[in-house]
Amino acid sequence: MNKQNRRKFIAMAGLLSAGSAASAFPFNKAKNKRIVIHHVLFWLKNPGSKENLDKLIAGLKTLRKIETVRKIYIGVPASTEIRPVIDSTYSASEILLFDDLARQKAYQDHPIHKKFIENCSGLWEKVIVYDSIDV
Amino acid sequence: MNKQNRRKFIAMAGLLSAGSAASAFPFNKAKNKRIVIHHVLFWLKNPGSKENLDKLIAGLKTLRKIETVRKIYIGVPASTEIRPVIDSTYSASEILLFDDLARQKAYQDHPIHKKFIENCSGLWEKVIVYDSIDV
User: Fold this and answer.
1) Distance in angstroms (rounded) separating the CA atoms of residues A21 and A1
2) Of B20, B74, B93, the CB nearest to A130
């Protein structure tokens, strides 16, 4: 490569890296944020009913569409060791990440969230929520 | 750019993208994985002691160094609404993400984790663990 083309290459390579940086922005943006984590555990009225669990999980999946949700993890108890401190009696777990408290509040008030409660709250007998914020 | 240099540029640009893909690998890799989430809530013996809380949080931060930990969130109760379903009586929360159950097990058995328990278990009076796996 001659000097002129080398310069062109460096310029184009620069554009390529700029492109990568732009697409990584949502990750970088949050680096200095204090992430808010909203963890909800659900105990079904009929824990043996696969149909009820599927309905709850389908309902939880609709929550992905709420714009202020940064990340959502929907799970069931994992088959880790059995230890007295591990509570694996729940039916489903929902872990939501938000960039701040205002976005968590917007999620609570969102029509999709309200619809989920309307459609699914008859399925569970108990819910525990842990809201935490990064230190 | 002449044809030869254009070819060189394309080859080098290819290497650059290969480089980006390699560094993004840990993210891409997990897309089809069923993430395992290990959530531990700690209740301190002396919940009013900032010193004890700081010591626990410093201990939790050492866990970041364990290679199989994909992501760690260390938090305290967030000032969301007060609702009967929200439990904000705990002192600290630790949420760990793993790519699979084997990596979670490796974390449990890791010397850094054992050292943390040795140094900090005297601080807490209660621990609850929820282990879940993505559906």
Assistant:
1) 27
2) B93
